[in-house]
Write a structure and sequence with these properties.
The protein has 5 helices and 4 strands; from the N terminus they run αααβαβββα. It is an alpha+beta fold and 133 residues long. A 4-stranded mixed β-sheet has the order 1-4-3-2, with helices on both faces. The chain is globular, with a radius of gyration of 15 Å.
Length: 133
């Protein structure tokens, strides 16, 4: 909220990693309540969604072809930011969560908080690496 982390630095860090790096937002409940009290619940949620939107756009622009996005609102925001008009459903990663193709090269897993097993992210990375019809 205070601009302490830049989207460009996050993207640079992600692109420098091997494997499937994870970018997430987290804080103690006390800190979350404090930040929400200072800036407003909606403003905090919007700021986080915009950050993840911008990161997704820059990653795809840099040639990243596989994205795993968790959180229903965040997933919707990323799909909107990437201007994805249609998604083809591929193999199931976990019940209710399929892999999806957006265009010729981009594959996605979009997971809301209520879906996916404890090893979802590992399974999603493996499924997205495979051929999705």
């Amino acid at each position: 909220m205070r601009g302490e982390v830049s989207v460009n630095k996050l993207v640079s860090w992600l692109l420098a990693q091997n494997g499937a790096p994870i970018l997430y937002s987290s804080a103690s409940p006390k800190l979350v309540k404090s930040v929400q009290a200072e800036f407003g619940v909606t403003a905090v949620a919007t700021k986080l969604d915009r950050m993840f939107d911008e990161v997704a756009i820059l990653l795809v622009d840099a040639g990243i072809e596989r994205l795993i996005v968790a959180g229903g609102e965040t997933s919707g925001a990323v799909v909107e930011a990437l201007a994805l008009k249609s998604l083809s459903i591929g193999p199931e990663i976990d019940p209710g969560v399929p892999a999806m193709r957006a265009g010729k090269t981009l594959t996605l897993a979009l997971k809301s908080g209520n879906f996916g097993a404890d090893d979802f992210f590992q399974k999603a990375a493996l499924v997205l690496e495979g051929e999705i019809g």
